[in-house]
Amino acid sequence: RIAFTSDRSGSWDVWAMPADGGTPARLTFDAAMDTVNDYSPDGKWLYFQSVRSGEWRVYRIPADGGTPEPATLDLGTNASVFSDSQDPARDLVYVCDGVSDTKIKGYRGSANDELWRCAPGAIPERLTRNDQNDREPRVSPDGKTLYFTRETGKSGKDYNLFSLDVATHEE
What we know:
- This protein is mainly β.
- The chain is about 0% helix and about 45% strand.
- The chain has strands at about 1-5, 15, 25, 35-40, 45-50, 55-60, 70, 75-80, 90-95, 115-120, 125, 135-140, 145-150, 160-165.
- The strands form four sheets. It has a four-stranded antiparallel β-sheet with strand order 4-5-6-7, with no helix packed on it. A four-stranded antiparallel β-sheet has the order 8-9-10-11, with no helix packed on it.
- It is globular.
- The termini are far apart.
- The relative contact order is 0.12.
């Protein structure tokens, strides 16, 4: 299935449809913006970010529809999901969080975006700590490497691809 975000219903919601075509099905029904992030590795869950609680955080919903549930306690956008088991409670969710505005390029300071890892409902673990914005995390299929973009360069307006060993946190 292909999941996507659309405002065809009047608000930004999550939709899904068969990869070979067909009628899209609306999966979320909230006036707040919902944006697709990633499927769980087993394809049973669809992760999305939303401001339905008043702040951005990551939620998950059964891939065929149902009731959304929080996947992170209080943070996150741009989720990427890894699991080495059949138990969705053990999924590791990699997210970006910070208060910087993506429209403000070159910001350096305490409010920059950093990367975090957490199991659903668990306290998040911070993975990066620097004065540049780290965004768009994507975990490798084996779960050992996290790839992400970082705002770099003298102007701070360039993004480069970085990788991080999730066991050692070495870049």
